[in-house]
Amino acid sequence: MGRFVDSWRSHLLVTFSGNSEGRPNWVDKIELGDDAGFFGPGSASWAVHGGMATMVAGIRALLMQTLHPGAMAGVHDWSRYQEDPLGRLAGTIQWLVTVTFADTKLAELESSRVGRFHDRVTGTYRDAQGIERPYAAGDPELLAWVHIVFTDAFLQSHTIWGDAIPGGADGYVREWAKAGELVGVRNPPLSAAELKQQLDAFKDAGVLKSDERVAEAVRFIRNPPLRPAMMPFYRVMFAGAVASIPREYRDLLGLRRSMLPAVWATGAVLGAVRFLLGRSSSSEDAARARIKRLAAANPA
């Protein structure tokens, strides 16, 4: 049993961090720095991004992102998600974790890295009305869409499968608006109500679109090239992510809610992952070490 647990723990750590110890090299930088960061202990962002539900949130965010044809064109034309899905995952995790747990300077540097990548992502796409339009990953509309679906996915997933959020849903949305601003989002939502309004505005304006590119991306997200032994557990989380998406968006994605108890089963899988990985997060540990060092150097 011990060998089985160790093997699974190693598989999970490599999948989500790229390192069998669960601490990629860039985490070491989180321990450095001169302030507590944009959020800090007891914040909504630490609670949400330090929870197990992030694994389901990532699936939900990727699914929702595909529905904007401009965002989908950028992924289709520029992303290496089919050739190196775990590499893309690792890059997204690095940004999320750094902005959440690092000091403000490192969070800003990491966001600048993402922005530099966006600078070269350009092309054209056909919108929902069939009109060909230019796109750039740094366009305000695309940045807003990605930020909104990301925030919504992490908030809703944690609400279903996580613990209470300090400051509630509004607290998380308000805090994470800072992350949006760091990558160039204009007027990010500052409350759960604003988040829903901005998300629904895309749908109501007829911006969203379902086509073969979306179907291709959904097929890939449903069946990524993970280790065969991990796929049954991933499929449960995928079903949970789908169940958490409102029906109007599921219909656009061509997905149906499972007849099985996907929400309960996903909770069971997340509990098993928590058992295998433990409750401690290397990133949060590094952040706490930084804050402890700063407090010792500057006693009240």
Automatic annotation (TrEMBL):
UniProt-recorded Gene Ontology molecular function terms: oxidoreductase activity
InterPro entries from the UniProt entry: MPAB/Lcp_cat_dom
One Pfam family this sequence matches: MPAB_Lcp_cat
Domain ER-bound oxygenase mpaB/mpaB'/Rubber oxygenase catalytic: 46-265
Protein name: DUF2236 domain-containing protein
Species in which this protein is naturally found: Cryobacterium shii
Highest classification ranks of the organism: Bacteria, Bacillati, Actinomycetota, Actinomycetes, Micrococcales
